[in-house]
Amino acid sequence: MPHRLIALVIAVLLGAAACSSGASSSPDVERASSTANPPAPDGDVYLPPDPLPAGAPGDLIWAEEIEALPEARAWRVLYHSESLDGEDIAVSGVVVAPDEPAPEDGRPVVTWAHGTTGIADACAPSKHESVADVVPSLRELLDAGYVVATTDYEGLGTPGVHPFLVGVSEGRGVLDAARAAASIEDTGASNRVAVWGHSQGGHAALFAGQIAPEYAPDLDLVGVAAGAPVGNLALLWKVTWKVPDFVGFVVLGGYGFAAAYPDADPGDLLTRDASEDASAVEELCIGELLDAFDRPVDQVIARSPLDVAPWPELLDENTPGAVATEAPLFVFQGSEDTLVPEAITEEWYGRVCGLGSKVELAVYQGADHRSVMDDARSDTLSWIADRFAGVAPAPECVTRS
Predict the structure, then answer these.
(1) Residue 347: helix, strand or coil by DSSP?
(2) Other CB atoms closer than 10 Å to residue 401's CB: what's the count?
(3) pTM
(4) CA distance 78 to 48
(5) Do you find a cis peptide bond into 51, omega within 30 degrees of 0?
(6) What is the three-class DSSP state of 163?
(7) Mean pLDDT, to the nearest integer, of 94-100?
(8) Is 222 helix (H, G, I), strand (E, B) or coil?
């Protein structure tokens, strides 16, 4: 087993945030002004310069223009963000904008948070050949006049290990992608931002909304749309460990956990065979990884993290909804979702509504984890458009199905 894998540690499902607020701890750095000609990468776009040039979170390190949809322009970008321990890091992503003059007040930005792809660098969404495969409904978003930004998340594509389902890490990557979009003058991007995500990306979107007031006060966050979000990590564990089809998420989550919390010992959780085979997460993307660990549960999991310190505390820290979210929320859920069941979203909903968040929860009957994206597409786009148009959101928590 490679030395790096031992050092990183394999753990179980889902990571935890360094702090619930997500406030930035990096030194104050003046934000760079927009540039019409962002610097081109010096070789591999995913390999950042060493040392990194000075920059605030969201400032571009470099960008390369890539093939876009008709009447649009696109860039693969590398931008500054902040790790859980406050270090300046490089994160990759994609920015797409309409190829026409922007209005005087700039274009709204939709920053997309993707679902689970894996943590191997090859699984970074920005590596897709077509930008249409990176962001859902990209054509509709561009036609609405939005700039679209999407992050790969920390450590996915770039050096290091992606802290899978570590909420503050995800949320910072999502918000800094919107800032990066505004660093390219040709996008015409403004500071008015909506976040949209699904599955892992729903979890990321909720954390982006939660940390935005402290971490990104320069952004005018008008709303957060989250589909099938991971709203309670402990409950998700109780679902995942029972289903052989989902056991690969446990090993995948272990790597993410270890990247953020090396004190979490995987030897307390996984079987010896699973630990020896876990190097597959460095090579396989999510479909193949789930197939590789499609085994009887007792051949992968030795003990529940709910029974082993410090896992319960870490799972709790990385569960969204510890504080109220200032921006309005639209959460959509499929009634037949077996990966992130409706009960998890209902528990999250009750908790955050009790804190004063304004949530519109839509449950789509008959939709599963994947199909809910299609079922909710029109409603989500309309909800985002209303937020940018200044239409008042629901004044309190409401549900519909």
Answers:
(1) helix
(2) 10
(3) 0.91
(4) 8
(5) yes
(6) coil
(7) 98
(8) strand
